[in-house]
Amino acid sequence: MIKKVVVLSIGDWKNIRRDPLLIFSMFGILLLASLVRFGLPKLDTLIDTHTTFELTQHYPLIVSLVLLMTPLMIGLLYGFVILDERDEGVLLYYAVTPLTKVGYLFCRLLLPMIITFLLSFIVILIQGVAEWQIITFVPIALLLALQAPLITMLMASLASNKVEGLALAKVINLSILAPLIDYAITNPLSKVMMILPMYWPAYTFILISHNEDWIHAFLIGIVITIAWFVMLNQLFQKKIG
């Protein structure tokens, strides 16, 4: 299986290289983390000079939103890959190869998880404004990694081609606002954002940054993510099949 995953990954890279937008989606995350590291302190100094607003208190939220960009972009990336392969009839080819359709789907969901998990650590290393520890960040990285296949399944299940995929991607991008809405609005109705899986990695990271109890948030995030996974998997299997 490992050899098959490697072969499929090489094919993915060839597809990704043909589309500059897809390449930018990968490196754009690192550029955004670099912007946070070097630009946010300067912005904080500028704001502090002219106002009494303390931006440093909101660093964990800002960093958590940057972290959410990782599964978002990687999930969309692999969603577009599946749409491309479905348009070209490659899925039928994989169904009769030793990889099989089940193996293909497994790789299509496993690869974005692995990439997101590893890339999350690179992002948190680059950002440099929010304190973190590797022991408590591993659960965050795990939650982030689980978001990527959900987004891939959404793309592959709801879009019939790349044009529809581009429109759907704009809607999916709005899910990153879930933790921001709950953070900024004190109305109890804002808690409805908790039903979205993307809410929980950011919320858990904020709790850890403030030295608050985060275990319950992490466990709830896992449960909600798995519930969405089960729900989307049925739609995903039907569409791909």
From TrEMBL:
Membrane spanning stretches? 20-40, 61-83, 103-125, 137-159, 165-185, 214-236
Keyword annotations of the record: Membrane, Transmembrane, Transmembrane helix
Output the superkingdom of the source species.
Bacteria
Please give the name of this protein: ABC transporter permease
- Organism annotation: Oceanobacillus kimchii
